[in-house]
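Bench notes, bay 3.
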Amino acid sequence: MPWWGVASALLANVLYSTGFVLEKRALAALPALSIRQPARVVGHLLSSPLWLGGSLALAAGFAAQLAVYRTLPLAAAQGIFVSGLVLLLLLSSVVLGERTSGRERQSIVAILVALVLVVASLRGEDARAVARTAPPATLLVIAVPSLAAGLLLYRSAERRARRRHRLPTAGVPYGVAVGLLYGVSSLAIKGVSGLLTTHDVPAAAGQLFRSPYPYLLLFTGAAGLVLSQTALQRCRASVIVPVCTTVTCVFTVVCGTVAFGEPLPADPLRLALRLGGTAVAVTVLLALPRHDTPSDPRAPSSLAPGSPPQRLTPRAPSPGPGAPPQPPPNSQELSHEAR
C-alpha cells in the first residue's frame, strides 16, 4: 500500500535527522578530522558514544528506507525524503544552536510544498509499478562516473578550502559531492530491497551477492562515512545535510528512473504534481547560500582542513565606574609613529 510507504518514509526522515544531529554534536568534541587519515577518522568516531548513538539512528533509517523502496516508486519516495529537511533544520537550530538564514527559512516552506505535491500524486496502483532490479550494465554506467565526479568535486573543494584569504564555505560543494555518493548508494539500496525475500533465502542471497548492489553499498558506505563526517565537522549541518539530501533526491529520481525503468504517472495532473515536487527540490538547492558570514568566529565552516576546532576567547572585563581609561592595544606604537 502506498500509505504504508509514506509512513515508512516519514519514519526514516525522523531517524535520519536525529542521527545527523547527534553525529554533528559528537563531532564538535572530537579532534579535527582529515580525509588523508581515514583510519584515524574511524577510530575517533568509534570512540564517541554519542556518535555511535547517531549511527544507530541512521541504521534504523536505512531499514525504514528498504521498506519504502518496496512500496513506492523512486520519484515519490525521494520527494517525501526531502521533507525530512524541515525537521533537520529545526533540530539543528534547537539542539545545535545553528542560526538559519532567511533563504534557509524560505527553503523550509518550499520543502513542505514539495512534500504536498508528491503525496498528492500517489495512487493505490503505484505499488504495482515499483521495479525490483536494474540491468547491471546500466547501473554501472551510471554509478561509476557519478562516484568519480563526487570524489573529484570533494578533492577540488578541499583544495579551495586550503587557499588563503578565502571566504568561509558554507559547505555546498561538500554537500553536492557527498550527495552524489549517497545517490549511488540510494540506487544500491533500491536494488537490495528488490532482492530481499523470505522465500528461498539461500537462492536470494546468492542472487544478491552476484549483483553489484552490495559492493556499491560497501564502497559508498566507507567513502561516504569519512567524507561526510569530515565535512559535517567543518560546516553547518543545516547546510551540509539539506544540500546532500537534495542532490541525492534529484540524482535518484533522474538516474533511478532510467536504471530501473519505473514509469511515471500517465495522468497529466499526477505527472505534473510529481515533476513539480522534484522541481521544487532543485529550487531548494539553488536557494541555499554558498558562503557563511566570515565575521562569526563560532562558524564551523571557517575551519581549514586539518585545523583544530576553534574556541571563543573570553573578553577582558570592562573597567568599573571611576577606573582610569585603558589605552588601546597599540597606543605606544601609534605614539611612536606620530613622533
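Next record in the batch:
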Amino acid sequence: MVNDFPAAPNEMKRAIFRGIRASLLALGSATKVELSHKLGISFPTISKFLSQMEQDGELILVGLDDSSGGRRAQRYAYNPEYMLGLAIFLEKTETNYTIFNCLGEVKEQGTAASVLKDDILSLTKHIEDLILKYPKIKSAAIGVPGSVNNGRIIYIPSYEKYHDFDLKGYFEEQLSIPVVVENDMNAAVLGYHDNRRKREKSSLVYLYLGQNGPGAGIIVNGDVVRGSSFFSGEVSFVPQYDDRNFLQALNGESEIAAAKLREEERIDAISRLVASFTAILNPHTIVFSNDEVNQSMINQIAVKSAVYIPEEHLPELTASDWKQDYLYGLQHLGLDLMISGTKI
C-alpha cells in the first residue's frame, strides 16, 4: 500500500482512509466526485484510495448513477462486515461483551464469569477465544471499574492485580490490534449521549451506585470530562456530612448498618450530590441506572434536591439501561478505532 502513494505521508494516508470510511458509513453510499467534494481531496487521489479499498473487499459497488451526458458514475458503499469490533467490560460479578460490525449491528452478545479477581491471563484467554471465533475483529474496547490514564489503570479499588497496569499496551502487544481502555462511567455517559442523539453540546451526568461503589460519568458541552489526573467522577469521596462522604452515606458504617439504612437517607445523600452537580456544572440531565432507581425514587430525589438548590435550576432526572449504555459507549470507541485503522 505504501508504494501506491509514495507522495503521501503515512498520517495523511490514515486520515484519508478514515475520511472515506466515516463518510461512506454516514452517507450510506457516495460517488468518487461526492467524496472528493466532501473531503476536499483531489479526484485522482480519491480514485486511487477507492481502487485499493475495493480490491481489498472494503467497499461494495451499489450501482451506477443516472448519466448527465457523460460516463455514469459508480456509487460505493462501505462493506460493514469487512471489520468487526469487540466491546467488553469487567464487573465484580461478570464479564459482558459484544461483537459488532461497522454499522454497529450486534453479531454476538454475551456474559462470562468475572475475571477481576484473577490475573490478566483469564481475561487474555477470554478475548483470544472470541478473536479465534471472529477473526475479523480489528479493535477492542475494554471497560473497567476504575480510573484510566491513556490505557493504564491508575485507580481500581479491591482489584490490586489490575492497579497501575497498562491494559492498553499489554493487549495491543498481545493481540496486534488497536485497543482502547475506558472507565465504566465515562463509557456509559458517552453511550447514553450518542445513542439518544442528544444535542451535540449538551451536558450530562450519569450516576451509578454500582457493584464497586458509586461513580459518575460527566459530559460537558458534548465532551467527556476526564479531569487533570483522569480522576473525574470518583464521587465516593465527595464529603456530604460532618463525618461521612457519599460512599459512607450510602452504605453506613457496616453491612448491618447498610441493610438497615432507610431509603430516605439514601435519597437525601443522592439529592445532595444532585445539588452539588447542579451548582458546579448546571447540567441538562442527570441519568440514573434503571435497576437502581424507579420513577417514585426519582420523584423523591427531585423534591429533596429542591430543598438544597433553587428548583428552576435543577436538571432533568431520568433513568436508563446502564449495561446497554456502557456497551454502546465502548462500541462507539471501538468503532472509532476501526474507522481510523492502521492501513497505510
